[in-house]
Amino acid sequence: MRLENKVAIITGAAGGMGRAAALLFAEEGAKVAVVDLQESTAQGTVDEIRAAGGTAIAIGADVSDTQDVARIVERTVAELGLPTVLYNNAGVDLEAKLPMHKVTEDVFDKTVAVNLKGPWLLMKAVTAPMTEAGGGSIINTGSIAGLKAASTPAYSASKGGLLAMTRSAAAELGQYGIRVNGLNPGATMTPMARQQEAELRARGIEFPPEGEVSKQFSPLGRFGTSEDIARAAVFLASDESSYVTGADFNIDGGMNILTSVSTHD
Ligand SMILES: NC(=O)c1ccc[n+]([C@@H]2O[C@H](COP(=O)([O-])OP(=O)(O)OC[C@H]3O[C@@H](n4cnc5c(N)ncnc54)[C@H](O)[C@@H]3O)[C@@H](O)[C@H]2O)c1
Q: Is the pTM here over 0.85, yes or no?
């Protein structure tokens, strides 16, 4: 098993990519803290892991809240052991299809709080226990929108900022044996993507249906799945990537290399 003896904190793991990662990490031998705002749904992920013979706990928490973050780390240490993997996956893409002049300041603040400050709080909080454990791996979920004009200015800034923070943290934390890398999903079929698709349709804008994704949108002609992203996360969490830090990986079916990646009207 590729993650034997690892203790992983995965945020946003009630659904979408986080849930898929939690299931795969546990299958590969990691003990998993399944963190999400939606505690009862997070418990559903934990029940699935336990039913398959794995070890996991559910923690209801807001990653943008300092006290919640302290509780995530305390419970993980007490119930699973010192964390050796932190997967900052939780994120929001609010009012994703509105033009910038209609987006409120609250939406900007919340986007940055969850997508950028949350990972910073968690990286801060795990540094000491991860160092005590002898090192570890931090994975930050960016986005193609952090590289290209593929979403709103607020979301793009939060994800681009997170990629910059990933490089800076990698430079600082390497001395403790902690690696920090980014994962940039392209359009991936999760509850977040389905909600955006529904919002577009409600406004009369056609979104390419699955199975009919234009080669102009993705060279591989399909959307990503949560499992596509989870497999890349396993690599970064495992010792297979022990010489990889400060990098970010586009897991996007080649979407970012095309000239027209914008899903924002
Ligand atoms: N789906 C895509 O196409 C896509 C593309 C690029 C990047 N991403 C990023 O990938 C990550 C996962 O996205 P997804 O599509 O699986 O999203 P999702 O909305 O399906 O799942 C995100 C989970 O995060 C949780 N969450 C939200 N705010 C939280 C908070 N403050 N504290 C704790 N948990 C919180 C939600 O409850 C939810 O369970 C996000 O960071 C997202 O920005 C998604």
A: yes
- Any idea which residues carry the catalytic annotation? 155
Q: Which helix (H) or strand (E) holds 141?
A: strand 136-141
CA atoms within 13 A on the CB side of 60: 6
| CATH among 3.40.50.1970, 3.40.50.720, 3.40.50.80, 3.40.50.2000 for 7-257 | 3.40.50.720
Res 172: pLDDT:
98
CA of 175 to the centre of ligand 1 (A): 30
Whether the per-residue pLDDT at 75 is higher than 60: the answer is: yes
Measured by CA distance, the residue closest to atom 19 of ligand 1 is 192
Ligand 1 is surrounded, with C-beta below 6 A, by 11-12, 14-18, 36-38, 62-64, 89-93, 114, 141, 143, 185, 187-188, 190-193
C-alpha of residue 257 to centroid of ligand 1, in Å? 23
Structural element, H or E, at residue 164: helix 153-173
Amino acid identity of residue 15, one-letter, is G
CA–CA dist 160, 142 (Å, integer):
7
The pLDDT value recorded for residue 81 is 98
Ligand 1 atom nearest the C-alpha of 88 is: 41
What is the reported pLDDT for 98? 84
What are the residue ranges spanned by the domains of the chain?
7-257
For ligand 1, pick from 192, 218, 228, 261 the residue to mutate: most ligand atoms within 8 Å of CB.
192
Show the tokens assigned to 143: 């986005």
